C-alpha cells in the first residue's frame, strides 16, 4: 500500500489520525502505523479506508503512479455535455446538461468581464 497516500488523503480532508481511526473502528496507533508504512491494513480495513475517502483500492495500492502525477485535463463543457456523471444520484437530462454548460459559461464570462474592468 502507498502509505503516503493515506497521509495525503487525511490532510486533504483536514482530519486527524484519531478522526480516521475512530471512523474505521481501529486504534489511532494502528492507523499511525499504516500511514508511516510500518504496518499494512488487512483487506477489510483497506476496503473501509477506500470507502471512507471515496477512492479506489487501486489508488491506495498502486505503486507505479504517484498521486501527484498530473493527468491530461478534460474540458469542463465537454464533460458536462457527455452526461456520464450523476448529480444527487441522478443522471442529468440533455436539457439539464445544456443548462449546466450555460451556467458555467455565464460564470466564466462574468469573471472574464470583471478582469477586463479591473
Topology order in helix (H) and strand (E) letters: HHHHHHH
Measure the end-to-end span: 49 Å
Q: What proportion strand? A: under 5%
Count up the domains. 2
Structural classification: mainly alpha
Q: What is the general shape?
A: elongated
CATH class of the largest domain: Mainly Alpha
Q: What is the number of strand segments?
A: 0
- The CATH superfamily of the largest domain turns out to be lambda repressor-like DNA-binding domains
Please mark out the parts with pLDDT under 50 across 5 or more consecutive residues, or reply none.
Answer: 64-70
Determine the fraction of residues in helical runs and give it as a percent range.
55-70%
CATH architecture of the largest domain: Orthogonal Bundle
The tally of helices reads 7
Q: What would you report as the Rg, rounded to the nearest angstrom?
A: 20 Å
